[in-house]
Amino acid sequence: MHFAKPHVSTCNCRTNTTVPPASLMQEMLSRSLTPMGRFTIAAKHHINIAEIYESELVDIEKAIAHYEQAADYYKGEESNSSANKCLLKVGAYCAQIEQYQRAIEIYEQVGANTMDNTLLKYSAKEYFFKASLCHFIVDELNAKIAIEKYEEMFPAFSDSRECKLLKKLLEAHEEQNSEAFTEAIKDFDSISRLDQWHTTLLLRIKKTIQGDEGDLK
């Protein structure tokens, strides 16, 4: 393990170094650590690489690949909470680049993993909400079926504001009523602020309403 230390030092001192060599060094170090069972350290380096790709190189697909690799390493160490954090980054980016099925799989997986955990189950409704929005963009009927499934899996989801919003949005969408769609979002947002990710997906759904101008005003 003596050879790993100088590599770490080189990776962390990125001053006067272009981004691609720095990310390459991180990847080389990750590969040198995994045969020795240092999966947690390797996972952290893959996260560092992913962050370089998302913030400096703006290559989302490569960032996704490294977050997925980090999640796999964390799973190997049974660090499920850390694995879930990486997977949620993957899910968010997959939805952003319209890889909705992959995003749905991730949100359903993380939701199922957290709904029986006393400390984390409150977050499960958010993951099922995000999965539902991804379904909604693909197909309205898909969203209906998915919401029913999530309610059955996690009864607390039925009483959540997220689930009630989804049902209002489905009703407005069925009626092709863009005003009702927007009003439901505004009511929700007045209590629970929607971030840019949610807003982006909701706009994509709203644009499928005939004659809609594509905003949430």
UniProtKB/TrEMBL annotation:
Query: Where is this protein localized, as stated in its record?
Result: Membrane
One Gene Ontology BP term is: regulation of synaptic vesicle priming
Coiled-coil intervals, chain numbering: none
Q: How does it sit in the membrane?
A: Peripheral membrane protein
Q: SUPFAM superfamilies this protein is in?
A: TPR-like
Which UniProt keywords are listed?
A: ER-Golgi transport, Membrane, Protein transport, Transport
Entry GO terms, CC: synaptobrevin 2-SNAP-25-syntaxin-1a complex; terminal bouton; vacuolar membrane
Matching PANTHER family, A to Z?
Answer: BETA-SOLUBLE NSF ATTACHMENT PROTEIN, SOLUBLE NSF ATTACHMENT PROTEIN SNAP
Family statement drawn from the similarity comment of this UniProt entry:
Belongs to the SNAP family.
What is this protein's function?
A: Required for vesicular transport between the endoplasmic reticulum and the Golgi apparatus.
- Protein name stated in the entry: N-ethylmaleimide-sensitive factor attachment protein, beta b isoform X2
Lineage start: Eukaryota, Metazoa, Chordata, Craniata, Vertebrata
Recorded name of the encoding gene: napbb
